[in-house]
Amino acid sequence: MLSNKIDIRVYYEDTDAGGIVYYSNYLKYTERSRTELLREIGVSQYELSNRHNIKFIVHSLSIKYINPAFLDDLLTVETSICDLKKASVEFSQKVFRKEENLKIDIIDSKCKIVSIDNKNNVKPIPEDILKEFSK
Fold first, then answer.
1. pLDDT tens-digit profile of 73-99?
2. For labeling, which of 10, 97, 111, 120 is most exposed (least CB within 10 Å)?
């Protein structure tokens, strides 16, 4: 199924007093990667809301912290779809950094999103978007 990778630099604002990435910032990094995956298939969050009357909301999330990331690291966020249903998508997301020829795993996570309408009722994802997701 569909996947992508984006690179993110760790800035001072992303870290705690010890120069280590604050744990909640990984959620921002993975959110950006999911958004970019949508953009790659020609879909924007704005378009989903205005054209299809749907929003994607996080239903559930699990995250395993493996190694810390530090100020100035260049991280790669790898996102792939691991489960696709009529009204939900589950993503597998990994963050890692490269050191010389090594790939250092930072986090391993899963995020399930659900499609809802403007009344917060579950609504099927449009067929054209489902087809793009399943490529």
1. 999 999 999 999 999 999 999 999 998
2. 120
Is the CB of residue 89 less than 8 Å from the CB of residue 82?
no
Residue whose token pair is 């930072």: 106
105 is catalytic: no
The residue from 16, 72, 105, 128 that is catalytic is 16
Q: How many residues in the chain?
A: 135
Q: What is the DSSP string of 20-39?
A: BBPTTHHHHHHHHHHHHHHH
Give CA–CA dist 126/123, Å, rounded. Answer: 9
What percentage of the chain exceeds 90 in pLDDT? 81
Four-CA torsion 127, 131, 134, 135, nearest 10 degrees: -170
User: What does the domain layout of the chain look like in residue ranges?
Assistant: 3-133
Residue type, 66: I
Tokens encoding 84 = 């696709």
- Give the CATH H-level superfamily of domain 3-133: Hotdog Thioesterase (3.10.129.10)
